[in-house]
Each structure stands twice: as structure tokens, then as C-alpha cells.
Write a structure and sequence with these properties.
Length: 110
């Protein structure tokens, strides 16, 4: 029996971000976009805007800024990484955070 796209995404979000991440799928007017070629889920749109994308190579979810902000609220401080002040400007430019600049991290991060 095939798994519904949103059920599959719910499982991926739980795996990546924990139980609280399922709240992202409670929004009204979610639209699932499937790949025309493969039929696999590629994106979830909320109110017509990209909300969650699915990486083709591994099936993991990547979040839009709106989805990330909602997830941050839902997680209530869990799964957070705190970076040094010096690294903040690099992160704001979309660059990577290297381990030597991590001040603290939640022990539940996989």
C-alpha cells in the first residue's frame, strides 16, 4: 500500500526535527507538488508560496524561512545551536558554521 505524500513528509520531519515539527503540516491550504518525471514529492506550498522542499538525493526536508520560524517556535528552545558572536556575520551571509565557532548545542541533535 503506497504511503500518502504528507504522511511520508510527516515521518521525515519527525526524524529530522522531532515530534514538534509535525505542527508545520497543520497549516491550512497546503499544496503538494510532485515531480512530473518521477511522481515523487518535491515541494509543499502554503498559501501558494514554497514552504518545505524535498531534496531529491536523500528525501530530507529543507525549510523556507517561514517554515523555519514556525519550527523554531514549535521547538521551544530544543535542537538549537549557539554560535560565537564572531561567526554571526558569516552565518547571516548564508555561510556555514564551523565546529570551532559553536558555543553550545542541544544534546538531542543527531
Amino acid at each position: 500500500m503506497p504511503v500518502e505524500p504528507l504522511e511520508r513528509l510527516r515521518a521525515v520531519l519527525r526524524y529530522q526535527y522531532g515530534e514538534a515539527a509535525e505542527r508545520l503540516l497543520r497549516k491550512e491550504r497546503l499544496e503538494v507538488v510532485l515531480s512530473k518525471r518521477t511522481g515523487k514529492m518535491r515541494e509543499v506550498r502554503a498559501a501558494g508560496k514554497p514552504f518545505i522542499s524535498i531534496r531529491a538525493k536523500d528525501g530530507y526536508a529543507t525549510l523556507s524561512m517561514e517554515a523555519a520560524k514556525e519550527l523554531l517556535t514549535a521547538l521551544k528552545g530544543r535542537y538549537l545551536v549557539t554560535a560565537s558572536r564572531g561567526a554571526a556575520s558569516f552565518i547571516a551571509q548564508g555561510r556555514n558554521l564551523f565546529a570551532k565557532h559553536v558555543v553550545s548545542a542541544d544534546a538531542n541533535i543527531r
